[in-house]
Amino acid sequence: MLFNHQDEITQQLKNIATLDNGGVKIENADKLRGDVLDQLIQNAVLNPSAEIKGLSRFYIKSAALELGIVNSSIQGLYDARGRGEVKGFTVPALNIRGLPYELCRAIFRTAIKMNAGAFIFELAKSEMNYTFQKPHELSTVILGAAIKEGYTGPVFIQGDHFQVNAKNYAQDPEKEVAGLKNLIESGIAGGFYNIDIDTSTLVDLSKPTVIEQQRANFEVGVELTEHARNFEPEGITISVGGEIGEVGKENSNEQELRAYLDNFNELLEKNRSGATTISKISIQTGTSHGGVPLPDGTVADVNLDFDTLENLSRISREDYGLAGAVQHGASTLPQNLFNKFPELETAEIHLATDFQNMIYGSELFPADFKEKIYTHLREKFTGEKKSGETDEQFIYKTRKKGFGEFKSEFWGLSNETREGIGKELEDKMTFLFDKLAVQNTKECVDKTVKQVPIRPTLEDEVTACQ
Question: What confidence tier does 287 reach under pLDDT thresholds 50, 70, 90?
Fold first, then answer.
């Protein structure tokens, strides 16, 4: 139900929560977790009125703080890992593309039952565009899901692949970098206190030396890292990730790792003495985002280079004090491989496409709605279909855009459908949390992560909706 007036929100929250001295006072947390929260979240996402949408977001974010749910940076945990004080698990970074509320609720339910604290919610620059989700909105949905499930403690939200477009950079580098700086600012303002800066697209393997190949990568990476540091909320050190190998391209090696990190750290120190460097490093080991679809729509097997992953993760920890290496493009890997990542001390693993596949592939997903989406995608994005590509391959690669194109319809699916798919997603999360060994990480997260409550303002939330 979408509200028509702000006073409808006040009425719905009567004897549950009220505005109080620039914040929100909760009178009945149990009732807040009922239908009224679901309505608030729906209005925070879909209401056409900036005032109503902003007020809904303000209530949710303020209530989260009151209930001990704190949007945080994972920097402290990763620092501890770089010092060798914590180990033995791989942090899952979970991309929230479709059915965001149900997916986030499934993640929090899994975390509670497995006593997990080391997990990240994320959305990439490209995903923000095709799912029609901006930072202020996504952080609201995530925090609302935490309220709903009764989760407390630090919540990590990450901007994934804040990526330089190499073609645009070649034409106008200042404009491309300025766009990323704006994205970083809006991400931080929206509660993204973890940001993966991806300038690996600027690596030029035609250059004669490894340093020259990586030069644009580390120089622009330092510039964007400094920019992120300029906008850190007081008391928070944003966890910034770097990347040396573009996912889907050539596998990374030790020479590239050292050339990037040595020169990145030297330039950062020169420009900004004492500045905190990156906390982790993304590398390429043979995977690709979403996997490689075969003509029948299934995904090709991947030859993942575990030796490279183990070696570069170890070097980045022991020689540079980072948390370790980050594995991208992994959600469609065979299930029997996931236990390898914590065994090799991989710091972080990014997972996305399999959740999308599960949503569309669920028996609970309405067949007529799916066909409506696919028909629309065939018509609107026909220009993206490559020569010789089958319809199955095209749909597999394109259906991610259905989440944005049919955003309100996804939110309007029946409770039975959404909650049923949410349970299926929870089963997947239970598997992943177990294989990645993040069960019982709540204590070490609470010990190492600094929780700094950043109180939202109603004015900022409304402005972000305009």
Answer: low
